[in-house]
Amino acid sequence: MEQKIKNMQHSPSVGLLPIDLERIRADFPILDQIIDGNQLVYLDNAATTQKPRVVINAIIEYYRKYNANIHRGLHYLAEKSTEMYEHTRIHVADFIGGVDPKEVIFTRGTTEAINLVAYTWGEENIKEGDEIVITEMEHHANLVPWIQLAKKKKAILKRIPITFCGHLDQSNINEIITSKTKLLALTHMSNVLGTINPVAELTALAKKHGAVVLADGAQAVPHLKVDVKSLGVDFYAFSSHKMLGPTGVGILYGKKELLEAMPPFNMGGEMIREVSFDHVTWAELPNKFEGGTPNIADVVAFDAALHYLEEIGMDNLRQHEMDLTKYAIEHLSAIPGLEIQGPREVEQRGGVISFTDNDLHPHDISTFLDSKGIAIRAGHHCAQPLMSILGKIATARASLYIYNNEADIDALVKALKGMRRYFGL
Ligand code: PMP
User: Fold this and answer.
1) Do 265 and 120 form a contact (C-beta atoms < 8 A)?
2) Among 134, 191, 349, which residue has the most ligand 1 atoms within 8 Å of its CB, making it the best to mutate?
3) Nearest-5° angle of CA 273, CA 276, CA 282?
4) How far is the CA of 141 from the centre of ligand 1 (A)?
5) What is the pLDDT of residues 172-205, one digit of tens each?
6) For residue 323, is pLDDT > 50?
7) Which of 177, 337, 378, 379 is a good FRET partner for 98, with 20 to 30 A between their CA atoms?
8) Are 347 and 330 in contact (CB under 8 A)?
9) How far is Cα 387 from Cα 378, in angstroms, rounded to an integer?
10) Domains in the chain, ordered, with CATH?
11) Which residues are known to be catalytic?
């Protein structure tokens, strides 16, 4: 598989090969690990995913053979580094539906991408009395910047509620999204409920009222084929580390007209055209938003992650995750005392499965599973307002990715049953 991916470097996506889980798992060295005598079962993919050997090797190879600062030098290494860095940008632009690479800005992650929009577009465009619409299932990354901006500008923060089943409740949507709406900021896929939101539909409504739309794609791009142009959004943010790539690389897609009109975010080297002691002009897109030395090695290695996903094919990946999510929900729901959050229909959700046990704290569940080598996450998942709506202080969360198999789910289910026996439940 890895050889094949290597041979494919810089070639277009072929996709739609049958999934060979054994071969895929063999590409992830970390999965081989025995922790405290237990085979590692990694089910914390919504937090971050593991890296295939091609990505790890790409980082090593970059530092061994090409390391130099980009855009500045006229020597071979600087030119090569620049070419590799810019190549990833072109690849990202293609991966999200064929946008102009100038519309792809590298950041440190989804959080920084959203903050970039809040501090630039938001500062300039949100005025007193304007309305910002968010949903009740937002991650703090797509919530706190808007709460703070609304406070500062005396704008109004409105929210789309959720239904009992974990969908967005659109029954009063025409009272929420109105001509006063300046921004709709919503998650494409919930990191707690797994819900896939109707971004295209809500964007169309927001656009009727002239609003700008930002979608948080941190949980969507890794798992679904995303075409930002057909979604119609103005801004779309996601992180490399949740899709097999390195940490420290985020992507902000923004429509050119908006990005061109926005002031810069980080000021310093690389983002200027001309500087005198009393006057500065900005560089063209995308450099205007990439002041300073970026995370070159990790951006370069992200290219290998994109190739890897393309080789599998996003449709195949999605099908595999739907099958496995169905299997997991079926088996987890059969455990007495366990309550699963979010929609049941796998077509409407991703493989993020939050659950609680009527008798045990999620932290105890996670600690018990850890003692069996199973990595899940427990807590509020950076969605405290959602937790309070669900009436929970925390949930346990198992989240899937391409290398997970039925044996991982079986291990989770067996350990959860064992846990209840252990606690005499
Ligand atoms: N939004 C969602 C839905 C997420 O799940 C996350 C990561 N947990 C983020 C935003 C923030 O991503 P990052 O930490 O990579 O900036």
Assistant:
1) yes
2) 191
3) 25
4) 6
5) 999 999 999 999 999 999 999 999 999 999 999 9
6) yes
7) 177
8) no
9) 12
10) 21-32+313-422 (3.90.1150.10), 57-310 (3.40.640.10)
11) 382
